[in-house]
Amino acid sequence: MMSGRLHISLISLVLLALGAWPRVSAQEWSCIQVQNDGTVDLGWSVTTPGATTMSVTPMLPPPDWTSLPATDVDLAANPTGTNYTLLATTQEFCFTLQATDGTAPLSGLSDTLCSIYLELEPGLVPGTVDLAWNSPFHFNPPAGFSGTYAVEQLLPDGSWTEVASAPWLVGNSNTTFPVTQCDGMVTYRVTLTEDGPFGTPGCTHQSNEASTLVSDELDPPPPQIVAIDVDSISGLAEVSWEPSDAPDVAGYIIYICSGSIETVLATIEDPNVLSWTNPFSAASNTIEYYNVAAFDSCYVGGVPDPGAANPACAPSCYLDVDWTQCTDRADLQWSPVYQWPAGVERYEIWASELTQDGIESGPFLLGEVDGGLTYFEHTGANIGSLYRYRVVAHAEGESWTQSSNVQEVLFTYPGGPEWMRWTEVSIVTDSVAVLRAEVDASSSEPHTYELWRNEPYDDDYEFVTSTWSLGGPIQMLDSTIEGGLGQYRYYLKVVNACGDSVLGTTVAESVYLTGTVLEDRLSNALSWTAFEGWDAPRSRHVLLRGVQFGSPLEEVEDFGPFNLSYDDELEDQVDSPGEFCYRVRAEQADSGWASMSNEVCLTLPPVVWIPNALVYNGFNNTWKPSIAFADVTEYRVDVFSRWGDLIWTTEDPEAAWDGTKDGALLPEAFYPYTLRIQDGAGRVVARRGHVQVVRRP
Questions:
Q1: In order of start, what are the domains of the chain with their CATH numbers?
Q2: Which of 130, 219, 437, 546 satisfies CB 3.0 to 4.6 Å to 551 for a cystine?
């Protein structure tokens, strides 16, 4: 089934160019009307003096023009016209008049006037009808004649309504137009109302009634889509359209489009509703495409045909905004509007502003561009303000508009964290320092943290490394130091996304430890610099020592915050290899922060004690050298006679000589000896001397 269309298309007007006959008493005609029973009402006015009879001569229509028997009509009984019995519902009949006195003509023949014969049949196009009819005048019409054909349709209540019109022309006329009912019998007639001075003013020439069976199989023309507006608050797409031209529109169908697929979203059974909002729209985030079709009364209670939509789907206007950080510029770009017949005249760019102080202004017109452009650059925005943008398209030659989605841009200048503080600067190896800091974790923006260093004996700071962070604890490594060179100074600088420094720490100074061996005192003299950089005072320094290289460091002493030196006495470490490593840890007790110094390793040379006498029955009955601060790997002692003979030898550091040779006591005397040792560090100690052997009773 197809729906009716309201527009009427005049297909053709066919003219018959006929020659003119001389008119006689043209004023005797008024009008001619075909009745439903096929009879013809003839109207006239008698202008001939003495006339008592009107001779009416019917004729077959051209090209036959065969005259039928004439009839004399008594003017006394029919002064203005008569009803003539003919089957004018099946063909056209033409007539001439002549006034007589009953026996002889008193006037010449009138102009020929023909009944309007209407032919009706279903059109070649389904849902249409074809109508054809003749003019009442096959020759030149009376002077001054003018008029308009009206095509009328019979309504169910018996009344007639005009459904089409056409200008009067000499000759035959025909037209084709869509029907406006779903199916059944339709009945039409054609009338011609005189507008000029000819005949009786207001006379209407009327055709026969013609009927035929029809069915409405045409879709109504689709409505013009006006806009796919995106609501500024909800972000939902609202589709609006112009009403369809069809006279019997019953409602509309709304589709959403995805590629070539159109899916029905809603059916509106009210022809007065011309907009619809999609409750599931995502037009605030993407382009959406919609289409609209009309359906007529033939579809009420049925399923509307979705094939009557517009050829192309209409898009929403999607606005995208790119903001270049650290500038006052935003670049706006949007998808074009293209459903309007004449295109887009212009795009208006609207904005509103919300300042940091909560003052809101707008919306205001920011600018406009030609309809062929889809981009705009906004410059001069106020830093710190929130801008809401919207684009409004204006149709060429129409009052239609379409609004895009809303996009927001906060023009911020990235600042920095509220605070930042050192927690640790530790020299972990001779080439690596570990640095830690705490940063305000409430900062919502990422920043770059740059580490700068001042080397010992240098006045300038140089960049070391950087890291990226949102805040909280930060750890950085400096792997380009020389830990034993001296005290290092550091500071952290916060750099925002614009490359500007927005915050910095105080200078942190590492703990620098130095040491000296006091060989004669069997001790190591240590001194260090104070740690600087905490926002709270340090509470103490702790000395850590490791005995033998590579061994773990243990606490040996702690000092107040202002003690910066210490002599480490080592008498209780004589059995050690003489290798001692030290660090100093600065502590801030309230926070738990600590910073470690560089490591200093010192080596005491081996210390050798050699007794100079052996006393039998005395305090020392044996003789043995004693060694301190040496990890002995090689050992040899030789004792000789005065003549150089080897008396005793050993490679055992724990062995002692008892003053004998081969078990026999030696006489009292001075005996030469040699001592040679080597420790794990490769150090060699050699000694020569004499040991005295003494006997006591």
A1: 9-215 (2.60.40.10), 225-315 (2.60.40), 319-410 (2.60.40.10), 420-509 (2.60.40.10), 513-603 (2.60.40.10), 607-694 (2.60.40.10)
A2: 546
